[in-house]
Amino acid sequence: MATRPLPPGGLASAADPGSTHFSPPSPIRIYFVGAHATGKTTLARYVQDRYGLQLISEVARSVLAEMEVSLDRLRANLDLVNRYQVEVFRRQIEAERDAGNSFVSDRAFCNLAYMAHHGTVMHELFQDPALPAYMRWVAGGLVFFVRPHPELVQADSVRAGVKFEEIVLIDGMVKLLLEMYAVPYLTIATLSMQERVRTVDEVIRIRYPDLGPRLGARPRAATELAAAALAPVPTATAPPRIPAADSNGPSDWHAPLPDPNGATERGEEFPPARYRDLIADLTPDS
Questions:
Q1: Closest CA to 4 of 208, 248, 190, 229
Q2: Pairwise CA distance, residues 32 & 41, whole Å
Q3: What's the pLDDT tens digit per position in 63-78?
Q4: Domains and CATH numbers, the chain
């Protein structure tokens, strides 16, 4: 079905009560959020391997590779920073829309903390109805907030010269966003990979009782997970082409949206208008 503009009340009030649309059965959305260098990717890959869910990898690396710009140059150019962070957020939304009803995601809205720290457009993004709509979507999933530890800090091609103080700063902003938008989350604060994995498995068992380990899957040993968490992250290569957003989203995803009355339209100066049509394809669970 064609995507319609986001109504002023957001997507929570957008569904037509008289619609004959039927929601897909038991969507499973699992997120690992937090600052960089905390072990989110390792845990997301564990869930992918053990439960057979599609993995949404960190999109920031792909966007940075496409822009063909160094991290130092990016941070020194506010216009580039703003374009980069907005595009990362748009790509995250697009990836979730394309993934279907069940996935595990390495990050969600986390790059907004970096946008607030390095960019100058966060105040405009907060006025865009796309942001609370997306946060409601995330709140309908299972969110693990992974906290930082100095032992996990490492530099790589994207996170050059990582400082633990900056990680703690980003961690605090991610927590602020979780609390601001009342997103339910479970904190993973332990450094022990064994305890992290046991926590994730138990919470998934409770939240999604029908989701069991896939046939032949085995829990990865704590030592194996620890080695994966501390291993150097490979440099991003040319990313796969992501199709431009169009007006036709998956027809089995969402209920019809009524035409907005007095919805605010922005000028073209601010990029978030580019991802509002993507947001319209993500509706909170009823």
A1: 248
A2: 8
A3: 988 998 877 788 789 9
A4: 34-232 (3.40.50.300)
